Amino acid sequence: MRKVTISCVSDHAYVAENSQSIDEIMSGTIRQWKLQINKVLPDKPDLLVLPELCDRPKVNSISKEKQIELIQSGNTEFLKYLQDVAKTNKIYIAYPSFRTDADGNLRNSNSIIDRNGQVIASYDKNHLVMAENTELGAHYSEDLLVLDLDFGRVGFAICFDLNFTELLDKYRHKGVEILIFSSEYHGGLMQNYWAYQLRAFFAGAIRPPAPCSIVSPLGELVAKSTNYHSYITESINLNYFIVHLDENWDKITLMKQKYGKNVSVVDPGQLGVVMISIESAGLTKEAVIAEFGFLLIDDYLELSRNHRINSLEI
């Protein structure tokens, strides 16, 4: 097993006032987030995910000029608060916020704070809503971020990104095991689609009233927050692989006969694929794949594509 505990935490944006100073707005925002984040810390998550621009106050509660003043202020109090949480609790935190990059460009980003409280990398939103660029001056990005953390490999998407399959295609075959999604909007079926297409777990922190969610690599909902609790914590097993049933029926039977409850097979129905998870600490997915000669889903599809191409060329 490779168990990882994920908390996705959300809340309504802090309602600020134009009369407040930047420091007062940040203090109010931190107070509000402490109440939510403290609710999941007893579960000792490995990864805490927050929603898009989590430290931004409610947009229509202050003027556009005040918003820009806040963005340009370079206030780091919220970041310092999260760094302290990460270091004290030895967790990773996905911190979505506006930031200014090394070239002085404004970015809508999601930064990873490590277990020691250090910012180790930032993903910059590829597909901004146009007003983010034209009105706020944020810059588009073309870069992915794939990180190997101590529990597994993660990738990122932010809000509007989820509409663009060209970004999804860039992430294919990168070995992402968890896609971290911080957002103002839920994405609906696109959450399930991205999870299945990437063969990865999907960890989404979404602003209420939409729920936070964790989706399996089969595109099935694992956990979601409710109207009563705007946070979730779930443990997932990253020692998994996905196969098409073609070429693998007999192998699955033989595997279960040998390893029994040390392996689990989840069949979502309709797709013709299953997810196999290794439930024993002394067994790895690589060993099971090699032992039974499993043909993974993407290898099978590529084999099918090539067979079609070769047949058309005859």
Task: Characterise this structure.
The protein is 32% helix and 27% strand. By secondary structure, the chain is α/β, with parallel strands linked by helices. The protein is globular. The mean pLDDT is 96.
Throw out a few tags for this protein.
single chain, 314 residues, alpha/beta, Nitrilase/N-carbamoyl-D-aminoacid amidohydrolase, 2 domains, six-stranded mixed sheet, 32% helix, 27% strand
Within the largest sheet, what's the order of strands? Answer: 5-4-3-2-1-12
Under the CATH scheme, the architecture of the largest domain is 4-Layer Sandwich
Report the C-alpha radius of gyration, rounded: 21 Å
End-to-end distance? 46 Å
Distinct helical segment count: 9
Number of domains: 2
Task: State the name of the first-level CATH class of the largest domain.
Answer: Alpha Beta
Present the secondary structure layout.
Layout: E1 3-9, H1 22-40, E2 47-49, H2 64-72, H3 77-89, E3 92-100, E4 106-113, E5 119-124, H4 130-134, E6 147-149, E7 152-158, H5 165-171, E8 178-183, H6 189-198, E9 201-206, E10 213-215, E11 221-224, E12 231-237, E13 240-244, H7 249-259, E14 263-266, E15 273-278, H8 285-292, H9 297-313
Parallel strand pairs: 1-2, 2-3, 7-8, 8-9
Antiparallel strand pairs: 1-12, 3-4, 4-5, 6-7, 9-10, 10-11, 13-15, 14-15
